[in-house]
Amino acid sequence: MEFGGLKAVDSLSFSVKKGEIYGLIGPNGAGKTTVFNCISRFYNPTSGRIIFEGKEITKLEPHEIIRVGISRTFQNVELFKHMTVLENLLVGQIAFTKENILSAAFMLPSVKKEEKRIRDKAMEILRILNIEDKAHEYAVTQPYGVQKLVEIGRALVSEPRLIMLDEPAAGMNHSETDELAKLILKLRDEFGITILLVEHDMSLVMNICENICVMNFGKKICEGPPEKVKSDPAVIEAYLGGEEIA
Description:
It comes from Caldanaerobacter subterraneus subsp. pacificus DSM 12653. The chain contains ten helices and ten strands. With 246 residues, the protein is of the alpha/beta class.
């Protein structure tokens, strides 16, 4: 991926297995979020291919990426200010309703049934996130950790098979991060969702990821299980300036 001749992502290649929690790490500016933006089609890659479940998705539109089973969160939480926690999730489900606009305009019985299904589904997601008691409170008034969970909830409403989490632990305290780790494991173990994780909290990454890809200046410098990555000299030098990874 190039921007005005500058290679933000350079000849990067990695594979994520179904049901895996896979980490993508590296120093600031390494190109991690650019990778997410390419996969989710916010950027058009200048070269290479992106394959999901055996099919190329490089040329799809962003809304088509969601429909094939991929969703993501963002580094910066951007919730609808005048909506409740529940409403923020409901907005995320509009694109996946089965009813057309004409049916909705006349509020046909099928629309009411679909509306109930959507609301029940959103509440179930809030229960999974353990924030169902916040459903009818304004999202932006919640603690930052809860707002991050709402962001994850919005990514879950499309029932993805792959969810890309972009620094989900940023701004969280230790207790919130521990709960986040349990949630990510739950999404994989109980719901079969594959996780691609960009994160700066190395303790979180090393504890829950089966494999990790390390980037620096747009290139992959190491890939493998945590034990291999944390002891790799190139990773130690590039990522922590020569200090060993805890």
